[in-house]
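Chapter summary example.
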Amino acid sequence: MSSTSLPGIAGWIVRIFVAACFVGGAVAAVSGRLVVAGVGFLVGHTLLAGAAVIQGQRRRGLGLSLSGVGWVALAVGLGASGAESGASLPTTPLIVGGFALVTAGTLLVVVAFGATASEPDAAPSSEE
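The structure predicted for these 128 residues follows.
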């Protein structure tokens, strides 16, 4: 029998796909294709959020989801503001809303990491 487990292989495939989404999004952003970049970031964040929820880390999953939606809003707002055509999108609310979502999502992820790190220390003291 093989020593490699199927979940281990699936985990590596997902990690490679997430990395490809973020690298592809960065390349798209540098080349000026902001909406494509935002979608790449959204897909990457959504996969990470799904993995967090599967592991029982709902707050981290929520934070990653909010960040992904925020990146799409930022990308669309910045892309529409740079378009010379008569774009009817309200760019300033999209940019401000996207920034707020990315910030809120990042705060949730950071708080979730802090809560995860402090849980093992808090468990023994609560039993005393």
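To summarize the output: Residues 8-127 form one domain.
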